[in-house]
Amino acid sequence: MSDVAVPAGRHWTHVGVWIVRGLLALVFLGAGGVKLFGLPMMLEEFHHIGLGQWFRYLTGSLEIIGAILLLLPRKAGLGALLLICIMIGAMITHLFVIGGSPVPAIVLLALNALVAYSEREEIASLAKAF
């Protein structure tokens, strides 16, 4: 019989990261869906950015892809990295182009960074593959 067990703190950390991943997936599925659906607010916001509506479609699609990757155990780190890049772009856009508060993007970036950190071994193995 083996006495090897996962320490209680590590178990709760794992559960906590899964909860964060699930919540982030819900947020980004919603945000990406709103962009793809073309709510008037999103149409106006992306018009103000000045890159055209193709950029709204690209951003919404990438957010949905990132959300799906967050839910896949072996791809969560990749999803978090993708969403971190999108949130960096969102912060820059809010600060220098459209105005408004960058705080939601900063919070989402931080939560994705937490997921990426927890999946750092997976990310390292993906990096070695290239």
UniProtKB/TrEMBL annotation:
Write down the Pfam families for this protein, in alphabetical order.
DoxX_2
Keyword Zinc recorded: no
Cellular localisation? Membrane
Chief subcellular location equals: membrane
Bilayer topology term: Multi-pass membrane protein
The alphabetized UniProt keywords are:
Membrane, Transmembrane, Transmembrane helix
Q: Does the keyword Membrane apply?
A: yes
Query: Can you tell me where the transmembrane regions are?
Result: 12-34, 54-72, 79-97
**The name this protein goes by in its record:** DoxX family protein
Q: What is the lineage of its organism?
A: Bacteria, Pseudomonadati, Pseudomonadota, Alphaproteobacteria, Hyphomicrobiales
